[in-house]
Fold this sequence. Notes:
Elements: H1 18-29, H2 36-49, H3 57-73, H4 75-78, H5 92-107, H6 110-126, H7 131-142, H8 148-151, H9 154-179, H10 185-202, H11 218-234, E1 237-239, E2 258-260
Antiparallel strand pairs: 1-2
Helix pairs in contact: 1-3, 3-6, 5-6, 5-7, 6-7, 9-10, 10-11
Amino acid sequence: SVKFTIECVVTVPNSTNVDLVLSVLETWVHRPNNGGPEMVLQAIMCILDLPYSPEHCEGIRRIHKGLYWFIGEFCLQLAPGGWQSAHSERSIAAQSIAVQLQQGASFGDYEQRSVCLAALVKLAILFDDPLRISIYAFMAEFSQIEGMQASHPIINSVLSLFDRIYSAKAQLHSRVNKEGMQWSNEALMQLARDHAILTELSKPFCPRLPKPYFPLGSTSEGLIALATQRARAAGSLSLIHISEPTRLLSISYAVFCLKKKKKNTKNDH
C-alpha cells in the first residue's frame, strides 16, 4: 500500500484587516436561531488549529490574537447556558475554548499570552467548577514559570481572587453539611455580604457579569433565595436590594445584604 501525505499551509497576508474579520464573526455570533454561535466557534477552532509557515507568520499571528480575544469576549454566546452553575460541567464548548486559550498562552508571544490569560480569567469567573478549577490549576502552574508573575501581574491578582472564592465556598459547603438549609438570619446576612464582595472583586476582570451571577455556585443561589423568602415572610428584615426575577430563574435573589429594620420608638410618627 502507498500512503500519501498532504500538507496544508495557511497563508494570511500581513495586510489582513483583523477588525473586519472579527466584525463579521460578531454579526454571526448574535444569530443563535440560525446556528450562528456554533458555526462561529467551529470556524475559529479550525483556524487556530491550521498550520502556517514561518514566512507568513505575522498575518496569521495577528488573526490568532484577534480570535483569542474574541472567544474570551463572547464566551457566553459561544457556550450558551453553560455559565449557569447547574450546567457548567456539561459545557463542552467552554472546555474547548479553555483548551485553546491555554495553548495560546503557553506557546504565544507576550501580546498573545496577555490576551489569552485575560480571556482565561474571564472564563473562570463566568463558569463554575470543574472548568474554573482546571483554569485555576493552569494559572497556578503557569505562575511558577520564571518571569511570568512579573510580566503578567494578572496571574497573582486572579489567583488571590480564586483563593478567596474557594475559601468562602469551603465554609459554605461545611456549614451546609452541618446545618442543611436551616441557617440563621445572621448567617444568611454574612453569606449575602460575601456574595456582594466577591461579585465586586470579579468585576475588574469581567465588567459585564451576567444576571443573576453567583460566584459561590448553585448552593449559594438557593440560600440567597431562602434569605429573600425569609425576609418577605418574617417582615423583621428588609433587603437593601432585590433583583427582579429573570427568565433564567423563577425566583428573585438578594444582591447585597440583609439589614435589620429599626424598631419604632415613641418619637416615631
